[in-house]
Specification:
192 residues; alpha+beta; 7-stranded mixed sheet; two-stranded antiparallel sheet
Length: 192
């Protein structure tokens, strides 16, 4: 089921409120993945998307793992009164005012920022933070300082072209041999 315009507005307002609260607590964060892609490319959330993802920038020491960064972030969020759920390697589900969304980590070591998710990639800190509060269309959001750079790092250079059957490495890992996955892969190949 797709979100209604009211549900989209509520999800973005609540998640933006949470991100701004965390920023005030010293945790740089911003919307990413589907919400960022839709807002930048289409001026709205993607029609088929039904969740919100964000990224928190977590400073780490040499040798720290992303799992340690997620655990530390989770402790901070709980101290701020948020419920968290999931035991995922690179993210947690976080609740703010009854709404759950996915919060991923980007680890910061020196000036190098590493994004962890379906694709692992690195960039200079200065291309992502400081973040900024914005309104796209009628939706409030928190954006990285170079949203197009984050989208290219996350999706590759083709992020500007809609791909309704986008088939990522995670889909292949989870079911690349299934009929449905093979069908999606074939349809995507026809679009390329």
């Amino acid at each position: 089921r797709y979100w209604s315009a009211v549900e989209k507005a509520e999800a973005m307002a609540i998640s933006t409120e949470a991100l701004l609260r965390w920023q005030a607590a010293g945790i740089p964060c911003f919307h990413t993945f589907g919400p960022l892609l839709g807002l930048v490319r289409e001026g709205d959330l993607l029609a088929h998307d039904d969740d919100i993802e964000a990224v928190a920038v977590v400073p780490v020491a040499a040798g720290d793992t992303p799992e340690q960064a997620v655990a530390g972030l989770e402790r901070q969020l709980r101290e701020l009164g948020h419920a968290t759920a999931g035991d995922y390697r690179f993210h947690r589900h976080v609740q703010h005012r009854g709404f759950w969304f996915d919060l991923f980590v980007a680890t910061l070591q020196g000036e190098e920022l590493t994004f962890w998710g379906t694709k692992i990639w690195r960039t200079a800190r200065s291309r992502v933070v400081p973040t900024r509060e914005a309104t796209v269309g009628e939706l409030p959001c928190v954006l990285p300082c170079e949203p197009e750079h984050v989208l290219e790092g996350s999706y590759g250079s083709s992020w500007r072209s809609p791909r309704p059957f986008h088939y990522t490495a995670i889909h292949r890992a989870l079911g690349g041999g299934s009929h449905a996955a093979s069908s999606i892969k074939a349809m995507e190949a026809e679009q390329d």
